[in-house]
Amino acid sequence: MGMKGAIVVLVIGVAVVYLSRYNRGNDEPVSLNATYDYIILGAGSAGCVLANRLSEDPESSVLLIEAGGSEDDNFNISIPIASGMLQKTEQDWKYQTIPQKKACLALHEKRSAWPRGRALGGTSNLNYMQYVRGSRHDYDGWAKEGCKGWSYKDVLPYFIKSEDIQIPELQNSEYHGKGGYLSVSDGTSTPLSKNAYAPAMKEIGLPFTDCNGKSQIGYCNSQETIRNGERASTVKAFLRPVMDRKNLHVSMKSFVTKILIKDKKAVGVAFIKDNKKYIIMAKKEVILSAGSVNSPQILMLSGIGPKKHLEEKGIPVVADLPVGDNLQDHIMTFIDFHDNTSSALNKDTHMAPFNIIKYLLFKKGIMGKSQLEGTAFLADGDNLPPYFQLHFFSLMYEPEFINLYIDLLNYDRKYTDGKRKEFQSTIDRNLRTFIILPILLHPKSKGSIRLQSDDPFDPPLIDPNYLDHADDVKTMLRGIREVLKLGDTKTFKSIGASPQDPFDAYTPDCDGFQKNSDDYWICRIKHYTFTVYHPTSTCRMGAKDDPTAVVDPELRVRGIQNLRVVDASVMRNVPSGNTNAPTIMIAEKAADLIRNIDSVKYLRERTDKL
Ligand SMILES: Cc1cc2nc3c(=O)[nH]c(=O)nc-3n(C[C@H](O)[C@H](O)[C@H](O)COP(=O)(O)OP(=O)(O)OC[C@H]3O[C@@H](n4cnc5c(N)ncnc54)[C@H](O)[C@@H]3O)c2cc1C
Ligand SMILES: *[C@@H]1O[C@H](CO)[C@@H](O)[C@H](O)[C@H]1NC(C)=O
Ligand SMILES: *[C@@H]1O[C@H](CO)[C@@H](O)[C@H](O)[C@H]1NC(C)=O
Ligand SMILES: *[C@@H]1O[C@H](CO)[C@@H](O)[C@H](O)[C@H]1NC(C)=O
């Protein structure tokens, strides 16, 4: 069956999936009230968790406002293997960074494409579902830098509270939770994880571990936020099950333009829905959960931000704070390895009719997994956070198919198109390829979010300032060298897997350097700098007197009453790993701070010992 046939079967099947969907809840209230106790802006990874937890209290009324529509408007969202097809759809804000000076040199206009989710569930609809909590040293570092209450000991119970671990070997682990809203399941899919990735990593000295357990350092099978073969976005996991609560209203396709502030106190919110302007008042608090790009944007539009910048844009200053500063993101590159066992998947195999039918009928098989089968963390010592992460991706290089390469597709191919075709024609269909992604975890380069204008519909200016700090190039190089070592292992040799540079044919700019020399790889890093989609820290948390902080350790905007930020933007620093689970943890903890309760007392007895 060709692609077309596969798509037809997929579409029909998806209709079946749609009809059998669990617990949809009510989509919209009949009409909005004039006031609520709590108004949450943004129904993303954090917003859906907060809406659930705050509305647990029947005495509180909650309004959740989201710019996008239902996550069910795009069927592909629920199918894990389709993760790469979700970008540039209606459920994506389709942001782009400003042209980079020292990075992204080979990408279209030197910009990096920054997908961000725009629907109930936010970016948890678009992500690759990797469940990674980060290093205990990350959180201990936050606490040391003034974020009281955010040490590893403090946050671990909140990770466990959310979780419903589905992996048999981890059922009895003290580090995992059972019965929570968020299903975490095993991500292994092809024989490569067991036969190639794990033994090769062992050969280069990295033990097999549970990266969310006692020690993060080593190689682990992926843990994925997937429930019965379907994406467990935060809307599916946390919001749908409680959407019919009487004290919770959800307003979709509602574009927030401003937080209303009176006498340094947040009193309400303005948004546009169906071309009408709405003003709704908050009796207790306004909680901003619009993510690392839009939370700083909305604060600045409301007069909270760097004074000089706001004045330039003609916005009256309410509070002079470093909003939009300290932007941090992970970057990666790609290294391909051939695989003569044919275990890696390509588009013919993963869309094979058998796989589609198996998935549609039983939600089983490779379509129900991301194919990021394994991950690993490299560190310089047991009491340091890791400096590098690897992802092992068992889906073959197919630029037209895997939108992971979306930046590359934007590449102005003016003078390389010939080379590209030549390269593609050399791909041997019988030779499969898997990909290893080396990821820089703690960039020293810091970027910013700024406003283009005072118009809320103008996308903000995103400048990650990638590779601005020379150490970031050095660390990337160091990580790449570790990956290249895998090519020398007995394991990889036995399957004929040697490192290939997928961009070799695209990078005439690096032709002048000797292949595989440091200078060659440095050139490569600077030309093909890809985001790992983990922007954080643009409304950074810190002690009350910390000049870099936007919110205090209770996530209250400094100097403004009744206003909190709860999402990835408050992270003190980007953690050692993917950012979805940490964002969910932040929302779980924030709900307790807001309600002034301790919902995880029952877990501390166990976690305090860990
Ligand atoms: C392609 C991709 C792959 C990723 N892979 C992984 C992964 O495998 N594992 C992992 O842990 N993390 C991954 N991430 C990152 C992770 O998903 C994010 O860090 C996390 O979802 C951020 O959550 P948030 O609550 O801060 O923001 P979001 O989830 O982005 O939520 C913000 C919400 O606010 C809404 N909003 C914004 N502005 C307005 C406005 N003006 N009015 C109304 N609503 C508004 C948005 O529409 C959105 O719903 C990935 C991200 C991407 C893009
Ligand atoms: C879902 O994926 C299929 C297969 O690639 C594609 O044809 C279809 O357009 C996608 N649907 C949406 C809504 O993007
Ligand atoms: C909305 O207002 C009605 C009428 O006052 C009230 O009964 C209801 O509980 C309110 N709903 C919410 C979610 O605040
Ligand atoms: C893979 O290829 C190598 C030679 O490149 C060969 O020695 C090995 O036997 C092959 N392995 C398998 C499983 O086919």
Structural class: alpha+beta
Overall 3D shape: globular
CATH architecture of the domain at 23-83 and 118-182 and 233-322 and 535-610: 3-Layer(bba) Sandwich
Low-confidence segments, given as residue ranges, are: 14-25, 400-406, 409-415
**Number of helices in the DSSP assignment:** 17
What is the CATH top level name of the domain at 23-83 and 118-182 and 233-322 and 535-610?
A: Alpha Beta
Strand content: 15-25%
The overall strand count is 26
Instruction: State the end-to-end distance.
Output: 52 Å
CATH homologous superfamily heading of the domain at 23-83 and 118-182 and 233-322 and 535-610: FAD/NAD(P)-binding domain
What is the CATH T-level topology of the domain at 23-83 and 118-182 and 233-322 and 535-610? FAD/NAD(P)-binding domain
What is the residue-mean pLDDT, rounded to a whole number? Answer: 91
Main pleated sheet: 8 strands, antiparallel
Ligands bound to this protein structure? flavin-adenine dinucleotide, 2-acetamido-2-deoxy-beta-D-glucopyranose
- Percent helix among the residues? 25-40%
What integer value in Å does the Rg equal?
23 Å
Domain Glucose-methanol-choline oxidoreductase N-terminal: 117-140, 291-305
Binding site for FAD: 123, 256
Protein name: Glucose-methanol-choline oxidoreductase N-terminal domain-containing protein
Signal peptide: 1-25
